[in-house]
Amino acid sequence: MSKFTEKVMLIGNDTVQKYADADMAIKMVAKTWEWYGRGEIIMPPKITTDMSSAGVAGWFNSMPCYVKPYDIAGIKLVGGYDNNKKKGMPYIKANIMLTDPNSGMLKAVVSGDWISDFRTGSQPAIMAKHLAYKTDVVTIIGSGLQGYTSLLCMSRLLDIKEVRVCDLSEAARKSFIAKFGNARFTLVEYTDNEAACRDSDIIITVTNADAELVKASWVKPGSLVMTMGSFKETEPEVVLNADVIAVDHVAQSLHRGNIKPLYESGLITESSFDIEIALLLAGKQKYVPSPDKRVYAQIVGMGCPDVVIAETVRRRIQEQTSNNNYFDMQS
Ligand SMILES: NC(=O)c1ccc[n+]([C@@H]2O[C@H](COP(=O)([O-])OP(=O)(O)OC[C@H]3O[C@@H](n4cnc5c(N)ncnc54)[C@H](O)[C@@H]3O)[C@@H](O)[C@H]2O)c1
User: What is the pLDDT of residue 1?
Assistant: First the structure.
C-alpha cells in the first residue's frame, strides 16, 4: 500500500463551463501572454505527432509548460481528427493534465475542449485590441467552431459594426450567422473572398484549408490580417508585403500554419517578426496602430494559457464546492 495519496480531480467539459466563461478566458490568455513575455513561463515548443503517414487521419500536439506566477505545471494534448465531424464530434479534441511542479503529483485531468476553443477565440480578440487601427468591418473566412469563438471573444473587446462571413459550406455560414442572432453588429454572408476582404478592417482566416484564401491586393493599408488555421491560408505576399508582422510565438510560428512554407523556402526567417504579442503585453515592445500600415499576424496557439485556464477552473471548484470527487492515483 502507498504511504501517500495522490488526489486527482477529474473535471469534465460541462463542469468547466460552470466555472469558466469567455471573459475569464480572455483575461487569463492576456495574463498568460504577459507572464510569458516577462520570462515567467517555461514552455518548450510543441511537438506534433502526425499520424497520417501511418494511415490515421489525425495529428496531435503535446504542449507542456510550467507557469511560475501560478505555481502550476501541466501538459495539453490537442489534436485534429478528420473523421470526427462525420461522427458528430468536433475536429479539434483536447485534454489537459495539471501537476504539482514540486512533486510531479497529478492534480487534475481537465477536459480541454471548451478551454481550447475559448483560448483560441481569445487570441484574435487580444491581438486585434493591440494591433488593429480600426475594427468596424471584420471578415471571417472559416465559420466553424474556432471562427465562432473568435468572433464571440472579439465582440467582447472590440467595437464591431459589420461581420462578413465566408466559408466553403453554406450550412456552416448560415449556422454561424444564426448563433449571433442578438449581436449588435450586422452579419453578411459572402461567397466571394475578394468582395469580403476588400475594404475590411480585420480579416481572420480560421479554416482547415491548405490554400491561398486571401490575396495581397485585397488588403488595404491600415488593416489587420490574422491567420489561425494549421496550414497555408494566404498568398505569400500577404505576409511578405506586410509593414508589420506579428506572432504569438516565434519558434512555433516558423513550423506551423501560413508561415511554415515561407520559412521552408527561406522567404521568412526568425528575424522577420516585428512583434511578439507576449513581449508587447509585457511592455518590452511598443506598437501604435497606424492607418498606413498593413499588419499581418499569425496565431498558432500556445499550451500555457490552456493550463492557466484549467488551473483557474480547478481552483474555483476547490474553493466553491466542499465535496470534490477526487480519484487517488495511488489507490
Ligand atoms: N491557432 C490556434 O490557436 C488554433 C486552435 C485550434 C484550432 N486551430 C485550427 O483552426 C482551424 C479551424 O478549426 P475548427 O475547429 O474551427 O474546424 P471546423 O471544422 O469547425 O471549421 C473549419 C471551417 O473551415 C471551412 N473551410 C475549409 N476550407 C475552406 C476554404 N477553402 N474556404 C473557406 N472555408 C473553408 C470549413 O467548411 C469549416 O466550416 C483548423 O486548421 C485548426 O487546426 C487553430
Answer: 60
